[in-house]
Amino acid sequence: MTTNLKSLLIFSFLLSFVGVSYGQTGNSQGYDDRYFDERQMLIQFEAKATENIASKPYLNLEDARVQLKEAVNKKAVMPKVKPRKKVLSAPEVHQLVKESAVAMGLAYDCGNCDKTHINHSSGYIISEEGLCATNYHVVESFTDGDLNLSMQIMLTSGEVYPVVEIISADQEADLAIIRVDTGGDKLTPLPLGDPANVGDDVFVLSNPNRMLFYFSKGIVARNYIRNPERRGEKGMPEMEITADYSVGSSGAPIVDNKGNLVSTVSTTRSIYVNAREQKNLQMVVKGTKPVVLLNDMIEYK
Questions:
Q1: Tens digits of per-residue pLDDT, 183-228?
Q2: Exposed, middle or buried, 57 (CB in 10 Å: 0-12/13-18/19+)?
């Protein structure tokens, strides 16, 4: 994957330090819980990440660089989560997926103040013991920055957990499996479903451009073998969808109408009438990584 595509879907934001919990308290404006206070939740992410770095074990930058290399071609060993069978409405799908979707946070020191800042993208839980999936390029971006401190995840409930290990990594598939320290909490994993067919409904829960836990719907537009970017590599399955996502959505779950994982957000590609000058945008192609690629990285026990 080219550098611009690697960085395309990772978004950085800077906020100050306080906190309140989204899933538990809703908002501070007097409205009901269907409206959460996004700003306070973003602030909470930084506050809890700072606390975790000060008081809990976490994967530091030096160890992450070593582990990312060692994790290539390794398999994550985990129990198989039973796929869901009941066809659901869109609101029902959202209620299920929001228990497993996470905001990925790359905590860093800007060098100009004493606060911990966050670059954020997306991911999802695949085992109750703390295994999570995201994009390879999300994890790689953490290892690329000398001022990076730690990777953290935030649930829709507002809980924040530090990443402590890189379990498996596949650069060609743009997928990585990481482990967070749950402190004994049992997380809600997303079941891995069957591969989706062209025309199937799909849903995405991601974090595009500061918009935490944005839920979008579309269909599978195309399944094909993507040509390798480097000579000697094999082509990889790719699934293109019409559901919206953008910067910040890297690594987000894509599920079917039963709430089972069918793919993972990876890239966008803009098509212009004038490609050289990037004028007159016609469409944005959404490239995702089908569930078959993630299954190849897992050994079920």
A1: 999 999 999 999 999 999 999 999 998 899 999 999 999 999 998 7
A2: exposed
Domain spans of the chain?
3-180, 201-300
The answer on pLDDT for 9 being more than 80 is no
CB-side neighbour CA atoms (13 Å) of 188 = 14
CATH of domain 201-300: 2.40.10.10
Q: What is the DSSP string of 150-161?
A: EEEEEETTS-EE
Neighbours of 140 (CB within 10 A): 18
If we measure between CA atoms, which residue out of 190, 229, 234, 161 comes closest to residue 96? 190
End-to-end alpha-carbon separation of the chain, Å? 32
Residues 231-243 pLDDT 10s: 667 789 999 999 9
168 φ/ψ angles, rounded to the nearest 5 degrees: -145, 150
The fold for domain 3-180 equals Thrombin, subunit H (2.40.10)
Q: Do domains 3-180 and 201-300 have the same CATH topology?
A: yes
- If you average pLDDT over every residue of the chain, what do you get? 90
> Using one digit for the tens of pLDDT, what is the confidence trace for 30-54?
777 788 899 999 999 999 999 999 9
* Band (116; pLDDT cuts 50, 70, 90): confident
